[in-house]
Design goal:
There is one protein chain. The chain is α+β, with helices and mostly antiparallel strands. Helices cover about 50% and strands about 10% of the residues. It is built from eight helices and four strands. It has helices at about 15-25, 30-40, 40-50, 60-95, 100-115, 135-145, 165-175, 215-240; strands at about 125-130, 155-160, 190, 210-215. A four-stranded mixed sheet has the order 1-4-2-3. Strand 2, helix 7 and strand 3 form a beta-alpha-beta unit. The longest helix is centred in the first third of the chain and has 34 residues, at about 60-95. Residues about 1-10 have low confidence and may be disordered.
Length: about 240
């Protein structure tokens, strides 16, 4: 029987592709690995190489296995990303313009989730907010203006790993909040630990920006009161809807 019998079982495929598939199979590659290289279906590969001996199982090549898995998932991931974008756009449109009351509530919730709060073991009344997400900083600084905090009372400083591109990060945050680099407070460097498996090492890593409000005791007490008001309103809404006993 001719050695290339399998190559004749699928006459519509390009002879060069069939020949290459058979060559790779003789080298011991799996169907997934051949598919990753030739970009053809495994059913076609099976037809082309059905007459060849099954290769001896060998340790998988991680790079080839990863490429094959990525290729299989690409159509699904494209569909998921398109759906994610549609959902995100629809949800964005639901918000629209914020009323003064809505912005007040949004800022209070943001601070109570991410800002510094007084503790029984560490009583304090200061307003300090720190985050690595630029959009969180944008919303919080807009909220500070909304509640009447003068720009001169707001101080900014950077917290970042010492191995990062510090000048670039300082320029980024200064531009975001509308000040010069010189107006930033002293940058605090976090010492790099080689044993720590850090994930935030990509080019976009910019550390965290800290926002402090000078003479912020009165504002902090107002934030506490606003938050209590939100909690009471939420409880009242639950009662009205019959969800609390």
């Amino acid at each position: 029987m001719p050695d290339d019998r399998g190559a004749m079982t699928h006459p519509h495929a390009k002879p060069t592709v069939r020949a290459r598939a058979r060559e790779l199979r003789r080298q011991g590659l799996t169907y997934d690995e051949i598919q990753s290289e030739l970009k053809c279906s495994k059913s076609s590969i099976s037809l082309w190489v059905s007459d060849l001996p099954k290769p001896v199982r060998r340790p998988a090549d991680p790079a080839l296995a990863s490429a094959a898995a990525k290729r299989r998932w690409e159509p699904t991931m494209r569909l998921r990303e398109a759906e994610r974008q549609r959902t995100r756009s629809a949800a964005t449109a639901e918000i629209g313009a914020l009323t003064d009351q809505q912005l007040l509530i949004a800022g209070v919730c943001l601070y109570w989730a991410e800002g510094t709060k007084s503790k029984p073991y560490r009583p304090q009344a200061r307003v300090t907010f720190m985050n690595s997400d630029p959009t969180m900083i944008e919303v919080f600084t807009a909220w500070l203006r909304h509640v009447g905090v003068e720009p001169g009372r707001v101080r900014f400083s950077l917290y970042i790993h010492e191995s990062a591109d510090i000048p670039t990060a300082e320029r980024f945050w200064a531009d975001l909040v509308g000040i010069t680099v010189e107006e930033l407070g002293k940058t605090t460097l976090k010492r790099h630990k080689p044993t720590t498996d850090r994930k935030n090492t990509e080019d976009g890593y910019r550390g965290c920006l800290r926002v402090d409000v000078r003479n912020g005791a009165d504002l902090y007490r107002r934030i506490e009161g606003w938050w209590c008001g939100i909690v009471l309103a939420a409880r009242s809404t639950d009662t009205d809807h019959g969800t609390r006993t």
